[in-house]
Design goal:
- The structure is a single chain.
- By secondary structure, this protein is mainly alpha-helical.
- It has one domain: Nitrile hydratase alpha /Thiocyanate hydrolase gamma (Nitrile Hydratase, Chain A, Alpha-Beta Complex).
- Helices cover 45% and strands 10% of the residues.
- It contains eleven helices and four strands, in the order H-H-H-H-H-E-E-H-H-H-H-E-E-H-H.
- The chain has a two-stranded parallel ribbon with strand order 1-4.
- Helix 3 packs across helix 4 and helix 8 packs across helix 9.
Length: 217
């Protein structure tokens, strides 16, 4: 895990930045004038948060499952391996892939703000930015996972990785059993955004599409 060395932008808590406040004010004004439909904006955001972005990460995971050489490259230099598939850019310049095993489950958090690999996961979910998740994921990761509907065996170690402005993480979940004959496209369909953060497992349907646990404050 890494210590934070965030710049001033990353030290802000979960309040609006000046830019976010300006965008919100503009959105309100345009809505009042009938020039935009808030529902349409919400639909676009939902698409990028839960569909378009996570599909990139799911492709990375599926390739790692089906291509041993790519998996080794991903372990050595995740930034280069992910870039080879065309996924790069702001918030994803420096990546590290952490692999779940039968002994260890990985969980990603950003304790000071909401550093997140946009290039492979799209927009961060609301709960990822919430102070409750950012603090409790470190203090009580097993309890937090249980609130997401993921109960792990007591003998399985949970390792929490703290994202920073300089380095972001991608969880490579364990490949589900019985998928040996599936191609990369089918395998990618088993990988959710939450599984690549570590709050779910591949093929799991216990967490809602929004990825928000009911009990998390």
């Amino acid at each position: 895990m890494h210590d934070h060395d965030h710049d001033d932008e990353h030290h802000r808590d979960n309040h609006y930045s000046d830019m976010q406040a300006g965008v919100k004010a503009l959105e309100t004004l345009l809505t009042e004038k009938g020039l935009i439909d808030p529902a349409a904006i919400d639909a676009i955001v939902e698409t990028y948060e839960t569909k378009v972005g996570p599909r990139n990460g799911a492709h990375v995971v599926a390739k790692a499952w089906s291509d041993a050489d790519f998996a080794e490259w991903l372990k050595r230099d995740a930034t280069a391996a992910i870039s080879s598939l065309g996924y790069t850019g702001r918030q994803g310049e420096h990546m590290r892939a952490v692999f779940n095993t039968s002994e260890t489950h990985n969980l990603i958090v950003c304790t000071l703000c909401s550093c997140y690999p946009w290039s492979v996961l799209g927009l961060p979910p609301v709960w990822y930015k919430a102070p409750a998740y950012r603090s409790r994921a470190v203090i009580d990761p097993r309890g937090v996972l249980a609130e997401f509907g993921l109960t792990l065996p007591e003998d399985k170690k949970i390792r929490v990785w703290d994202s920073t402005a300089e380095l972001r993480y991608l969880v490579i979940p364990e490949r589900p059993t019985g998928t040996e004959g599936m191609d990369e496209v089918a395998l990618a369909g088993l990988v959710s955004r939450d599984a690549m953060i570590g709050t779910a497992v591949a093929g799991s349907s216990k967490v809602s599409a929004a990825g928000s646990p009911e009990a998390l404050p």
